[in-house]
Amino acid sequence: MRSSWINKLSLIFGPRPPLSWLLLCLISVLALIAVLGSSSTNSFESVTSSPVPDIYANYRRLKEQAAIDYLDLRTLSLGVARQRELSLCGKELETYIPCYNVSANLLAGFKDGEEFDRHCELSRDGQRCLVRPPKDYKISLRWPAGKDVIWSGNVKITKDQFLSSGSMTKRMMLLEENQIAFHSEDGLNFDGVKDYSRQIAEMIGLGSDTEFLQAGVRTVLDVGCGFGSFAAHLVSLKLMAICIAEYEVTGSQVQLALERGLPAMIGNFITRQLPYPSLSFDMVHCAQCGIIWDKKDGMFLIEVDRVLKPGGYFVLTSPTRSSSTKKGNMLTPIEEHTQRICWSLLAQQDETLIWQKTMDVHCHTARKQGAVPLCKEEHDIQSYYQPLIPCISGTTSKRWIPIQNRSSGFHLSSVELEVHGKYWVNPDDYFEDLEFWRSALRNYWSLLTPLIFSDHPKRPGDEDPLPPFNMIRNVMDMNAHYGGLNAAFLEAKRSVWVMNVVPTRTQNTLPLILYQGFAGVLHDWCESFPTYPRSYDMLHANGLLSHLISEGCSIMNLLLEMDRILRPEGWVVLSDNLVAIEKARSLATQVRWEARVIDLQKGTDQRLLVCQKPFLKK
Q1: Which of 289, 362, 442, 611 meets the CB 3.0–4.6 Å disulfide criterion with 572?
Q2: Can you give the pTM of this predicted structure?
């Protein structure tokens, strides 16, 4: 009778394992004994010796071992789970976004623009397949080169759509055989975005656009951002510009902006509020964005007022200003609406008008005739695709602070944190969280360097890349908490931007995240995220799996959604308890991810799951 360990091997290799396999196993066991005997300390003890782990002293040996373990686990996962892998979706779903199914919305009776709105209740159930990349898809160029040149096969835009675009777009884009090139910041934009940005700065009383930060303008909501040229320029000025545009089947503004490495997501002004709290942005910008702002009795302007901070600016540029130009002494509809919500017209030049939101919280109560009523306090707490409401938000909030009076930089003082203390944050928790992520990011870098954050990325068959060696650009923190990971990235001077997602039904820390000048949004992870496939280079989540399990959400559906929005060769880093991580690891093989589990804190049930999405070409 064979011994028990041979019986176990029989289950893996068959009834008669080859002699070479037995010898290999014996050698591996002996090597493992030698390694364990020669070291009196565990490689991860340096992580657990203090509440906040620091860089591993023996990180080089860990990196080498991590690479070996990764290859071993990849081989095992491919051999064991191949029969359970999900199939690829059809070609028609290459740009599939579950909650934006125009055909289903039309059949359900939505019209007058609402067919392009978000309707997750009509999304297809049981869509268990992997969204494939287009036939001509190529791995995006690394930042900053990818800001100025993208592969045309990665975005769904035709030459006819390019030729029918506006004159500024043609000046900013060159459509070549398989690439779309944008004018560099060093190019001759004598009549383009640089002059336009400088004009806006001068209209609000600044010497140049380099003074935006000093004037309190750090975050800009760019509505209908075109192809992201204005946002790209603002990024060069160290501003955070977030592009939002409605869902588009082809020629998507959001998809193209994300492909360039710029913050963007689907959002529109139709019937619902944007998924941001009140008092979120320093400037809202619309250049030929196609929105009729005085429509629905000024409801869209009221929504802009809701997300604007006190003293913030609304910039409107349109070649047809008939609705914005006075006729004699009569006020135009848009002027009437802006006066009702206490905006003042700062300047008007050429096709551009700029209004400023009032800094006086009592302005609304002082105006009796025709004034828009004030919202109740509960409207300021959470806004997740709620219906548009005809009232003024934020007037009772402690966050009613004019942008000109706010400190610059993303580090907040204890006094500033007290503003958020009532509903969102404890100052001690905030500073502990920030210190934790400083150390955690260093540990990620040291442990995962051979896998993710390589200083010299090189794929098999590729030549050595030219500097800068940036592996990732678009990062999403799916459970951002206070935005500590984002702050750690900035402190480490990594060339990334982070979409900080605050899950619904958790502590709403989004106001604090936006106050720091970061990109962020509320989202229910039981639903699809409002973005196009292949949007992000890295997805990170701490504690999200266990939260969703407690909420009764499907982890399989979550991984499918993550796979949809993750770029080929993109990375997933999940931190959670052992039960949640093992459940995700077992499902990761079905979505064809290469996965490995890391025990970062010995003696606890916390684990790190690291996965990479392969580039599936067929």
Answers
A1: 611
A2: 0.82
